[in-house]
Structures are given as C-alpha cells and as structure tokens.
Amino acid sequence: MKRIVFLFSMMIMFLCWGQNIVDNRLNFRTAGSAYRLKGKILQVNFFVSCPGYPVWTMDQKNEIMELLPEGTGWLKKEAARYGQPIDFKFKNYGYKTDIISNSTPHDVDNPFWQNDLIKQLGYPSMMDFYNELKRNNDFDQVYVVFFINREGVSYANLTDRDYVKENKDSFLETAILFNQFEGKSLVGKGERYTLPHEILHLFGALDLYEGDDQSAYSEDVAIQKIPNSIMLGSVRFLDEDEPQYELPEYKIDEFTAYFLSLHHEYKKWYKTLSNKCKTENSE
Ligand SMILES: [Zn+2]
To answer: Distance, CA 14 to ligand 1 centroid (Å)?
Structure first.
C-alpha cells in the first residue's frame, strides 16, 4: 500500500513538474514596487535630457503625454480580458523644464545612473523617493519611466527577490525609454508598443524573442503559439516589408498572462518559454 501511495505521489509530482518550474520562476520575479499587475497603479514620468544632446521641445513632450493614456489604456483593456481591473494615475517631473542628467543612461560604467538622477533632485536614495511617493499618493503599485531625449535601446530595470535583498534601492522599479531607436521615433505608429512592453517587464513579463529570456527555438515556439504577443515586440517584422503591427493589434498573450498571474490555467508549452528564465534554484 505504501508503495502504491509513493508511486502515485511520484506520478503527481511528475505531472506538476513543469508547472512548478514556471511557478517558481514567476514567484521569483514578482518583487519590487511593481509587484502585481492589479489595483491602483502610479506611473511616475521623468523628462530627461543629457548634456550635449538637445532638450525636449514642448511639442515632443506633448506627443509623449499622448502616448501615456494610450499605452496604459491598452494595458487596462488587456488586463480586463483576463478579468483583472487596473487603473493608472500619472505624476510628471521635468514637464516644464527638463531634468538634465549628469551621467549617461545605460552607461556600462554607471548602471545606477537613475539613482544619481534621483539624488540630483535632493533625495538621499531611491528608497527615500519611494517613501515620499508613498506618503503623498494612494497606490498599490508604482514604477518610474524615464523618457530620454536621445537615441538608445529602451530597457526595464525590473527587480527580483534576491536583487531586492542585496540592493534595497532596486526596490523602486524603473523603465528607460529613448526617444529614438535606429532612426525610428518612440511615438511612431510601429513603435508605440514599446511603452506597455517595458511596463509589462516591470510586472515580471519575459521577452519572447531570442535573447536573455529565450533561445532561437523557444522564440519560434512563441511565434507559432502566440504571434500577437506584445512581448515578441517587432521581431517578426525585421526582415519583412509588411508594415509592423500597431498597438491595438498586440495582445497580452496567454503565457505572459499566466506569468503575471492574470490566469492560472497552466499549459505544458509554457515551460518551454520560461526555460531560460533564472531563479535562485536554476543555473
Ligand atoms: Zn523586452
């Protein structure tokens, strides 16, 4: 009898194995100030320019201001498809006059340039800035988006559990959005997915194209299974003449939604897309 129970539990363990791996990874990535895509969300926007580069014009800033409700409106609509109500509020810094960064964003010599920028504003640390936001605003989740008036590859500084333990200042999660990428404007029709894509990273979403999160094989699986995923970005359009998707054509796909805990119906192929995602238990 004992043996049957043992075999039975081994069988259950085997059946749940893939799901456990995905769930562990999911739980590992849910840390920081943008913990879950739910509830009242505060997006703090900074208009930043860099020495030697032009400052933002008011027209450019207003184009970004139009991007904000569009991107977060899309997120709201997509979360609602999974039954999750969310709401966004904005707080803006540097709208009237740019904040000039003394250091270069995404400089390999200074990965913590945003901490320096916050210090420039008079806060001893990112945590002090977070605490002041918390005192003065009603929110469940918060993150900061730095809009930089120069060319670059936009990215997200999401945090995981170990990283928050090591570096308390990483608790406040940030995204860096550059005004131009390979000559294309952030507010161009084909690029307007970038803002919600980076925001989803902060809530734990993985990239679905080949890179840190995916192999060439798993990218292929993603393209087959969930071709409209916003986390695939524009990867399908790089070698093709067809026009890129515009934001409404993108989706929060079912894998990303599972990873963000928007639904709980695990499917086997989800494991393939989370294989490269690191946790404390994986190499
Ligand atoms: Zn990405």
So the answer is: 32
Amino acid residing at 83 = G
| Residue, of 159 and 205, whose pLDDT is higher | 205
CA of 11 to the centre of ligand 1 (A): 36
- 113 and 227 part of one domain: no
Distance 202 CA to ligand 1 centre (A): 10
User: At 185, which CATH number?
Assistant: 3.40.390
Number of domains in the chain: 2
Token reading at 130:
């977070």
Q: What are the tens digits of pLDDT across the range 104-153?
A: 776 656 777 888 899 989 999 999 999 999 999 999 999 999 999 999 88
Verify that 191 and 218 share a domain, yes or no: no
Q: Among the three residues 157, 178, 204, which one is the final residue of a domain in this structure?
A: 204
Phi, psi dihedrals of residue 88, rounded to the nearest 5°: -115, 140
Query: Does one domain contain both 175 and 261?
Result: no
Q: With contact defined as beta carbons under 8 Å apart, do 158 and 204 qualify?
A: yes
Distance 153 CA to ligand 1 centre (A): 10
